[in-house]
Amino acid sequence: MKEKIILLGGGGHCKSVIDVIEQEGRFQIAGIVEKFVGESKPVLGYPLIGTDDELEELRKKYKYAIVSVGHIKSNSVRVKLFEKLEAFSFSIPTIISPFAYVSPHATIEKGTVVMHHAVMNAGVKVGKNCIINSKALLEHDTQVGDYCHISTGALLNGDVTVKANSFVGSGAIAVQGSVVNGFVKARSIVK
User: Fold this and answer.
1) Which fold has domain 3-87?
2) Which superfamily does CATH assign the domain made up of 95-184 to?
3) What tens digit of pLDDT does each residue of 67-93 get?
4) How far apart are CA 119 and CA 164, in angstroms?
5) Contact, 178 vs 143, CB < 8 A?
6) Is the per-residue pLDDT at 153 higher than 90?
7) H-helix or E-strand spanning residue 116
8) For residue 137, how many C-alpha atoms fall within 13 Å in the half-sphere facing its CB?
């Protein structure tokens, strides 16, 4: 029998996280936790089972949880929710799509979700509570700090450093050895 997991946040990103969890097959999704009752409807058939204020009580029933709120303009909600999960001693797994490639020589910390067709090559290190979105490429020895979002189709060449709390937009390219700190627009080049 699969362990049950709850998802914090019921928006668009939640749908993508659900799809990855279903494909990975390790967990059974118990339901969605939202900020307020009535703020969310079921997501892809999974019910709203509580609010952020009920996390301590939900921990008595569920061991596993993951943040399923996205990160575009700010990651403050993702950070706050992740810290709440830690405070209530939830187990926060790493979720990896079976359609992604993660080198056995790469490391990923808890709470990070690696979406479909992402590629993480040898020597890559990704911090906690990150989003490595669909078709992102993290080339050898790239370092991604905590609470980052590497968007769809972003290309991080070898030895790139992405500082904590950064956002790399869709299709952005970071050249070999560059440093990303903050917000990088879609289709930008970081040198």
Assistant:
1) Rossmann fold (3.40.50)
2) Hexapeptide repeat proteins (2.160.10.10)
3) 999 998 899 999 999 999 999 999 999
4) 20
5) no
6) yes
7) none
8) 13
